[in-house]
């Protein structure tokens, strides 16, 4: 049976993740409130943040920044794109 959640990002019921995607309390909240589709959207946003800010995910400051942005993205109104960001042409 598919695990369904009321996705906080999409505003509708959707298929949930198979397991918490992040450790600790934040991972548990994401598992309970975020769909697979919304998590995939976050991964794209996270990649953009890493590239635009030239972050190294192995650095503690970068990991803390990304965790804060993840919290904002899902639970406090959204994570902003960098001011200099220009979306690539498709």
Q: Could you explain the architecture of this structure?
A:
This protein is mainly α. It has a single domain (4-75), classed as Fe(II) trafficking protein YggX (YggX-like, Orthogonal Bundle). 49% of the residues lie in helices and 9% in strands. It has 3 helices and 2 strands; from the N terminus they run ββααα. It has a two-stranded antiparallel sheet. A hairpin with a 4-residue loop joins strand 1 and strand 2 (12-15). Helix 2 (36-53) packs across helix 3. The radius of gyration is 14 Å and the shape is globular. The protein starts with a strand and ends in a 15-residue tail after the last helix. The mean pLDDT is 90.
CATH architecture label name: Orthogonal Bundle
CATH class, please? Mainly Alpha
Unreliable residue stretches: none
CATH topology annotation: YggX-like
Number of strands: 2
Number of domains: 1
Shape: globular
Residues in β-strands, percent? 5-15%
How many separate helices? Answer: 3
The oligomeric state of the chains shown is single chain
How far apart the termini lie comes to 37 Å
Helical residues, percent: 40-55%
SSE arrangement, N to C: EEHHH
Neighbour order of strands in the largest sheet? 1-2
Rg over CA atoms, rounded to whole Å, is 14 Å
Write down the overall mean pLDDT.
Answer: 90
Specify the structural class.
mainly alpha
Largest sheet: 2 strands, antiparallel
- CATH-defined superfamily: Fe(II) trafficking protein YggX
Short description:
The chain has 90 residues and is mostly helical. Helices cover 49% and strands 9% of the residues. It contains three helices and two strands; from the N terminus they run E-E-H-H-H.
